[in-house]
Amino acid sequence: MPELDATHDAALTSWVSSANDGATDFPIQNLPYARARRAGTDEPWRIMVAIGDQALDLAAAVNAAEHTDAQAAALAPLVRGDLNAFMARGPADWQLVRASLSRALADGSPAEAVLAPCLIAQSALEFSLPCAIGDYTDFYTGIHHATTVGKLFRPDNPLLPNYQWVPIGYHGRASSIGVSGQTVRRPLGQTMPPGSTTPQFGPCKRLDYELELGLIVGTANALGEPVPMAEAESHLFGVVLLNDWSARDLQAWEYQPLGPFLAKNFATTVSPWIVTMAALAPFRAPFTRPAGDPQPLPYLDSAANRATGAIDIALEVLLETAAMASTGEPPVTLSTSRWPEAAYWTAAQLVTHHTVGGCNLQAGDLLGTGTLSGPTPDQAGSLLELSMGGKAPITLPNGEQRTFLADGDRVVLRGRCSAAGAVGIGFGECSGRIAG
C-alpha cells in the first residue's frame, strides 16, 4: 500500500492559487490524471493533471522543463498521451512522477515560470475516457444494497449463502463505457409483465442508476499467475466514480440463470479524473467484518488488509430533472454513503480473488465495486432501493416525483475524502443525462 510522504504534507500549498481553496477537489495533495483537450477543437488528446481549477498539460510541461533521465523515461508515455503505458510501468515510476509534479507545482518552485503557460482552465476542456479500458468486471460488494434488493425479490432469503465467502462479480461490457457528461439512451429489451405468460418487447420503463467506484488496474499479472493479497494494491493505479446504469425491468426477466445482460450493457459512466492510490493514502481505514460474520478465507486475508484495507470516501448522488434544468434549479441530493460502511470486500480482495484462478488483469482494466449503499434507507445508492422497488415514490423539493428515471433527468455522483491532519481531496463529478 502507498505510504505517506512529502506529497501528502497538509502544509503544502501551490503557486496555482485555486489549489489552495479548501473546497477544491484538486489541491496539490491530489494530482489526478485525465485525458482531455480544448473543447471544440480537433487537437490531439493529451494527458493532464488537475491542480485547483486548472489542468497541467503534461506534454507541454515536459517540453518546457528539464528532467533527469529517470524522469524523462517515466514521463515519456504521458507525453505521447498514453496513460495505459505509463500505468504499466508500475509504482516506482508512478511515485517518481507524483513527487516531481508535487515539487514543480509547490509554492516557491522555480518551475512556475515555465509551467504556468502549460495550464488550461478545466472549464475550457472536453474529456475522453482517461485510459483505454480493455475489460470491465462489476463486483457486488455493497452488502446493504445486496440485502435490500434481495429482500425485494427473496424476502425469506435476501443474501445467498455464498455472499459472505466469495466476492461476487460478472463480466461487463467495456465498449459502452463513457465519460462524465454522457447522454444515455433508454434501452430496449424484453420484460415480463406481472401475470403474463408472454414477454413484451419495448423501451425500459424502470431505468435506474447505481452509485459505484471503479478501480483502475495499473500493472498486469501474467496469465496463470494469481496475485496474492500482499501484492494486490501494487497492481492498482487509482479510483474513479462509476455509474452503472441499470434497466431494472429488463434485469428482472433476464438475470436468471446467468446474471445481467442487456439490463447492464447499454451504458456505464465514469468520472474523467483518476485519483491515484497514492493520493488516497491519508484516508485509509481498518477493514472489519460485523460481529458474528465469517472471516475471509486465508487467501483473502492479511494483517495489512485488516489494518488499512478500507479507504474512507464519502459519496453523494444528486438528481437534476428537465424541469429543474429549465428553471436553473441546482441538482438535489438523493442520498449519501461511505465506502467502508457500504462494502463487504476491499480493493485488494477484489484483485486477489479476480486473479486466483489465473485470470490475467491488464493495464486499464476496470473493476466496479457494485452499488455502495449505506446501512440506512436514506443512504441507498439506487432508485430501486430508495423507492422500494417502485412502491414508494420520492418527492423532490419542486413537487416532482420519481420511482425511476425519466427522460431528461441528469444524475450526478460526487466523492470526497477527509481525515484529521490531511487536506481533503475529491474526484470531480460523474454525470450522465437520460436522452429525452
Q: Which structural traits does this protein have?
A:
22% helix, single chain, Fumarylacetoacetate hydrolase, domain 2, 8-stranded mixed sheet, SH3 type barrels, 2 domains, 13 helices, 436 residues, 5-stranded antiparallel sheet, alpha+beta
What's the Cα radius of gyration? 22 Å
Secondary structure tally, helices: 13
User: How would a crystallographer describe the biggest sheet?
Assistant: 8 strands, mixed
Task: Write the CATH fold name of the largest domain.
Answer: Fumarylacetoacetate hydrolase, domain 2
> What is the general shape?
globular
Separation, N- and C-terminal Cα atoms: 45 Å
Mean pLDDT: 96
Question: Can you give a write-up of this model?
Answer:
- By secondary structure, this protein is α+β, with helices and mostly antiparallel strands.
- The chain folds into 2 domains: about 5-125, Fumarylacetoacetase, N-terminal domain (SH3 type barrels), CATH 2.30.30; about 135-435, Fumarylacetoacetase-like, C-terminal domain (Fumarylacetoacetate hydrolase, domain 2), CATH 3.90.850.
- It has 13 helices and 26 strands.
- Strands 6, 7, 8, 13, 14, 16, 17 and 22 form an 8-stranded mixed sheet that branches.
- A hairpin with a 2-residue loop joins strand 2 and strand 3 (about 55).
- The chain is globular and about 70 Å long.
- The termini are far apart.
- The model has no long low-confidence stretch (mean pLDDT about 95).
